[in-house]
Amino acid sequence: MTELEQRLITELGNNFPIASRPFAVIGERVGLTEEEVLARVKEFIARGIIRRLSVALRHQNVGFTANGMVVWRVAPERLEEVGKKLASFPEVTHCYERETAPDWPYNLYTMIHRPHREECLAIAARLSEAVGIKDYLVLFSTQELKRSNPQYFTERG
Amino acid sequence: MAAEEKGLSEAERRLLSAMQDGFLPVPEPFKELADRLGLTEEEVLGELRRLKAAGVIRRLGAIIDSRKIGYTGTLCAMKVPPERIPEVAQVINSFPEITHNYVREHTYNVWFTILAPSAQEIDRIIGEIKEKTGIQDFLNLPARRIFKIRVNFDLEGER
């Protein structure tokens, strides 16, 4: 990525102005016109670099206080099928296949955010039934130690 | 509804829900959104500034696909004696590349994510955390496949 592209990503992702003409404001910061910024944004969207223009909410502050990470042990030959099936549930916000470790056999991860932990457990039970997998754990978070926005192209990066 | 329990008004929920669906790359995106919601642009801008200051909105703007710009991530877990959690968290959190860090209910009780420009950088950070904390019960669980990432919360729908 060029230096200009990196600056644009930082402005668009981390310093987006809540202003009437936000792309004009960003243009002033990086030395482009509003039209040029908009053209780059559309190009970034087309290339998949920007997923969309949106908000990320703090789930605790909108009432989704129970944060359950459900880890599943899935036979390798069923991963594709089970991953897609679990991802299809609207309650599942994230679904990843991950590497395993000698004392950690779980290879599929689903995140569930709900107002109460009982709901998370009930949803996990429904997911378990839907895919016929009983070997799973629901790991609730009890404390948030850090939650920060990703910083790209910093000095260290 | 949970959002009500936390005191979000009907109007706030409508605005946040529309914002989660996304805004457009047009010269006046908030005016466009305001028109859709039957509000004025000033009302939308004011509400968004307030909700951001109040911490309801964690981030506003472009949602970047970190992999598409060459970044790589992983999920790590450690077994930390409960009394050492504050001190160990301080070591982990000192790295700007750590984006999430949670205590979870398991013997592997500290779970955090690393986002960095290369796998070598991730290995360096993991090495430093192990060395500084002396904790060797450590899982490094990079993703092999992503089936879904959806950051939206259903603020208006049925539960």
UniProtKB/TrEMBL annotation, chain A:
EC number, as in UniProt: 4.1.1.111
InterPro entries on file: AsnC_trans_reg2, HTH-Siroheme_Decarb, NirdL-like_HTH, Tscrpt_reg_AsnC-like
Pathway given in the UniProt record: Porphyrin-containing compound metabolism
Residues covered by the Siroheme decarboxylase NirL-like HTH domain: 5-51
Family statement: Belongs to the Ahb/Nir family.
Domain Siroheme decarboxylase AsnC-like ligand binding residue range list: 62-146
Pfam families cross-referenced by the UniProt entry: AsnC_trans_reg2, NirdL-like_HTH
Keyword annotations from UniProtKB, A to Z: DNA-binding, Lyase
Originating organism: Thermodesulfitimonas autotrophica
The protein's name in its UniProt record: siroheme decarboxylase
Signal peptide: none
Keyword Thylakoid among record annotations: no
The keyword Lyase appears for this protein: yes
PANTHER family according to UniProt: SIROHEME DECARBOXYLASE NIRL SUBUNIT, TRANSCRIPTIONAL REGULATOR, ASNC FAMILY
Catalytic activity, as annotated: siroheme + 2 H(+) = 12,18-didecarboxysiroheme + 2 CO2
GO molecular function: DNA binding; lyase activity
UniProtKB/TrEMBL annotation, chain B:
Record field: catalytic activity: siroheme + 2 H(+) = 12,18-didecarboxysiroheme + 2 CO2
Pfam family, one: NirdL-like_HTH
Signal peptide: none
Domain Siroheme decarboxylase AsnC-like ligand binding: 68-148
EC annotation from Swiss-Prot or TrEMBL: 4.1.1.111
Pathway it works in: Porphyrin-containing compound metabolism
Record keywords: Lyase
PANTHER family for this protein: SIROHEME DECARBOXYLASE NIRL SUBUNIT (PTHR43413:SF1), TRANSCRIPTIONAL REGULATOR, ASNC FAMILY (PTHR43413)
The family this protein is said to belong to: Belongs to the Ahb/Nir family.
Listed name of the protein: siroheme decarboxylase
Native organism: Thermodesulfitimonas autotrophica
